[in-house]
Amino acid sequence: MDLEKGALEHILRQLKEKAGIKQLVYRNTLKAFEQMRDQGRQISDELREIVNQMDSSIAIEYEELGEFEFRLKFGGDILIFYMQSNIITFKDDFPLMQRPSIAEDPSRRYFGHITIYNFLADSIKYSRLNDPGYLIARMLINKENHFYVEGSGQLNFLFQDLEQNLITSDWLRLIIEKSMSEAMDKDLIGANYPDIRFITLKQKLNQNLVAIRGEKIGFQLSTEDKNNA
Fold it and tell me: For the residues 206-216, what does the mean pLDDT come to?
């Protein structure tokens, strides 16, 4: 019975110390994601009005896909914003875990996260299932509404001051704008001729032709950026 009581006390302590914090982080992340959707919709509307006066054939679209996902299409690119429903933490050797604020309060080590992926618009339009997507950024949000972003290009250093970065609509708008710029800065590079000499019939039937896919050049994970520095 004492063992059972000890296990029950441990469960209750974990629920008090972890579950409550994770619920708070989840609510913060969901609220931030809703604000991000509002900013994405607003950016889309503003861009569409301007671009239509320049070239009405350039598509600017905003689309919601359920509670945890929305898309921004601009020209030949699509950004997919996705909120993960689970709360995460990291191993102690992860750079973010070395921050003084986390050492001071270990409950700050729990984060909600929003990922931003870049796909070619035609990959989705024509269901080219083998076409790659690229992680532009990952945004991490803690119990105090502070955030940290790691990603490609400027997104890997502009938003990494966890202690100072507090969620606001202006910050979220800037993250979206920087993500769009990063996607457009990476051009589609054609595959080398020897790499596309042979295709399977399945690739042809599914329109997954290597010759038209190519890959975007310039995307690296933040860990790769640091290793190559």
Answer: 53
Cα four-point dihedral sign 221, 223, 225, 227: negative
Measured CA to CA, the distance from residue 130 to residue 36 in angstroms comes to: 29
Instruction: Give 214's contacts (C-beta < 8 A, 6+ positions apart).
Output: 188, 189, 190, 191
CA 178/CA 71 separation, integer angstroms: 15
pLDDT in tens, 26-75: 999 999 999 999 999 999 999 999 999 888 889 999 999 999 999 999 98
- Whether the CB-CB separation of 112 and 96 falls below 8 Å is answered with no
Domain ranges across the chain: 2-186
H or E element at residue 138: strand 134-141
Euclidean distance between CA atoms 147 and 166, whole angstroms = 6
Of residues 100, 97, 76, the one with CA closest to residue 88: 97
Q: Are 13 and 21 in contact (CB under 8 A)?
A: no
How far apart are alpha carbons 203 and 209 in whole angstroms? 6
| Alpha helix (H) residue ranges in the chain | 2-14, 20-54, 100-104, 121-125, 169-185, 201-205, 210-213, 222-227
Distance (Å, whole) CA 174 – CA 156: 14
Read off the tokens for 168: 């606001």
